[in-house]
Structure formats: structure tokens, C-alpha cells
Amino acid sequence: MTAPGRTAEDSVFVRTYTLTRGRTAPRHRLGLETVLEAGPGRPGPGQAEECARILALCRERHRSVAELAGLLRRPVTAIKILVSDLVDADALVVPVTSPYAASSVDSGAGPSPQMLAAVTAGLRKKFPDAVSYAHAG
Amino acid sequence: MPDNPVAVPRTPARPQTGAATVLKIVIAGGFGTGKTTAVGAVSEITPLSTEEYLTSASADVDSLEGLAAKRTTTVAFDFGRLTLPDAPIPLELFLFGTPGQDRFVNLWHDIVRGAVGAVVLVDTRRLAASFTPISFFEDIDLPFVVAVNEFDGAHRYDLCQVRAALDLPDRVPVVTCDARDANRVAGALLTLVHHAAKNTPASPRHSSLPTSFQDV
What we know:
The complex is a heterodimer of chains A (about 140) and B (about 220).
Chain A: H1 8-19, E1 35-38, H2 49-60, E2 63-64, H3 65-72, H4 76-88, E3 92-93, H5 113-126
Chain B: E1 21-29, H1 35-42, E2 48-53, H2 56-62, E3 74-84, E4 91-98, H3 106-112, E5 117-122, H4 131-140, E6 144-149, H5 159-165, E7 174-177, H6 182-198
Parallel strand pairs in B: 1-4, 1-5, 5-6, 6-7
Antiparallel strand pairs in B: 2-3, 3-4
Helix pairs in contact in B: 1-6
Protein name (chain A): DUF742 domain-containing protein
Pfam families (chain A): DUF742 (PF05331)
């Protein structure tokens, strides 16, 4: 290991570590695509400035974990850790959406045929000029 | 990331009507194949560059030289969002642009878990850059289509030649695309969704439980 702060990358790493107060894993099982909305709770005292930014972003509209990480320019795991804190404080909630349609969380199977048909219909309405190649090859 | 966190608290979630269903689509390809451009062509937000630390566990598997010593290495992906309010049910597509290298990195498994499938963008001048994502998606059985990005000035190969060069089976669709053109990218997405539907069993083996929390 190099000395702390020796390179720019090291110092970014240290800053992130400080941001999460030394934690390296989130308490909640959050996916990159997990969507978050602002909730009724308030975060506890002494939260990182990034928590306020996350809350402000989620008050504008619901945001995914991946989007928050991109907007805050922080690694995904750091964002998951902060989001977990905010979920614990009920300051963020995970809306229950229609089933994501995987056959099970563990198998990682894809969406159902019904869901795929809905995607096709939605894409065709949004992009009426798009041409798909059903039998491309 | 721990496989089994010691205590996973119940996460408060509130029933909500009208919340859009989220689906993931992967846009993969080697460096410079136009992934970010393609994500940006259909995304309603400017593609966000998002990063994650490369974990030490994957560093061992990857056996890239010097990785073990350089623990702050990051991997990056693009994120875009496409709302489909006029679908039969409100849908949001999350688009993940990934280099597809470092296939052992946990992050890629997080990205592809539960995804509709992947569009692999190909630059015919650098076909080899597509080998890793293609073999990765074949290995994990994720539906994918190959989209040849028609770069200005690049030679136009017959798609059969591209298929042969990439050693793709007949069932994998190969299409042309212009990553800058929303309609052409949407066409590639439609081809993918159609392909994924053909590969999905018609029998309803799907759970009806709300599953906002997909992984870790």
C-alpha cells in the first residue's frame, strides 16, 4: 500500500471511506436498479452532506441507486451505504412497484413474456419510426 | 460485498399505485464502439458515468497484472433512463452501458441480473473487442443481439460475414445500427426484446411477489 494521499486516486479512496464512516458494505440489499423516493422521515444528525443531496434529488423524482451514484460522482457501494442509512431513518422509501417479473431473485431470470410485450408496445409508441428485425440475420 | 449480511433489516416499503415497473437493458461493447452514444441517443437524461470499486476478490480472479497492489481501481459504466409512459403498464427502462471486459467483476453480474438482455455494439474494424462481452452473455445465458455500428468511413461488411467472424449461432440476431440515431438504437432494442421473448418460456413461472430489491 502506498502512503495515504500519495496519489489523487488514493485521496479519493480515503475521502469515500470517510464518507461512509469506514463502512464497506450496505445494510440493505440494494440493486443498481433499486428505485428510491423521499419518505416522511428525517435523517439523523451528523449525516454526510451527500445525504442531503440524495434527499434533494429524490424529492424531485424517484431515482435509482445507479443514477444517484452517477449524479454524486461516488462509487456505487458508497451510495448504497448512505442510502441504507436514509432508508433506516425512513427519509427514503422504496416504492413497491409491479413485479419486476423475474421468476425469482436468486435465479436472476429475465422478465415475463407479458412484460416483454409491454416493453415492445411502449417502444413502438415512443419510436414509431424504429424498425426491428424480427428475423434478422 | 457479503453474500449473507449478518442482519438484513426489513426495509420499509410503501404500496404505491402508479409506480413504474423498472426493467434493465445492457448496452455492451468494447472500447470506442459507441456505447455511450447509443445510451444517449434514447435516454431522456444525459448518460451518467458511474463507477464502482473493483473488489479485491475479483482482482484475484481477473489476474490482471498489478491489480492486487492497486486496490483503488475502479470500473465504470454508463447509466441512462428511458420512460415508456404509453406502454400497457407504466415502464421505465434503465440502460447500462458496459465495456464488458472484466467479466468476473461482481458489478457486471449486478447489472445483468434480471435484465431483459443485451445489445452488443460491434465496430467491424475491431471485432475482437466484442469477443469478451459475447462469450460472457453466452455463458450466463442472457439473451443478446449484435448491432454493427456503422461508423462513417468504415467498410460495410455483409452481416453474414460478421456473424461468421464472431462465430455466432443462427439464433442470435445480427443487425446494423447507427448509435447516434434514436430510431436505429430503438430498433436494436426492439429486436432484442423480440429475441428475448422468443427465448422466454410461455408458461408463467414467474413470481407475483413485489421484488424491488433484486440483489446484492
